[in-house]
Amino acid sequence: MRQYEIQQWARVLVDMAETVPDERLDEAVSVFVSFLAEKGGLRYWREILRAMDHVWSHQYGAAHVTVTSAHPLSAKLRTTLEQTWPGADIQEKVDSEMIGGAVLRVDDRIFDGSVLGRLQQMKKHLGVLS
């Protein structure tokens, strides 16, 4: 199976996730997997899923978002995240050892707005200046 075929199958899965009603999505994916098995493509399943993440990210800006903070997110902030990255898998982690702030991971990018992260940045800048 060539790379562009893997990309095409990934696009089919993303399109299904957008258009098929939630109550029929399991059935649609089952049909897709059966079709893929008939074509001998099941051995490429992991590659198709990775490509699906790429297609999703390209279309919506992110596939996976993880927020680590000292306290649970407010409903308003969670709604803002969902609106900013529609359809992304948003995970929330509470780290009681954090002093404050948050660390946001969007796919492979990390935005460190934690107190510790800011202190480390300050230390780095002060070290450069002295």
Automatic annotation (TrEMBL):
InterPro entries attached to this UniProt entry: ATPase_OSCP/dsu
Keyword field: ATP synthesis, Hydrogen ion transport, Ion transport, Membrane, Transport
Protein's UniProt name: ATP synthase subunit delta
Gene Ontology cellular component annotations, sorted alphabetically: membrane
A Pfam family hit: OSCP
Subcellular location: Membrane
Coiled-coil ranges (or none): none
Record GO terms (molecular function): proton-transporting ATP synthase activity, rotational mechanism
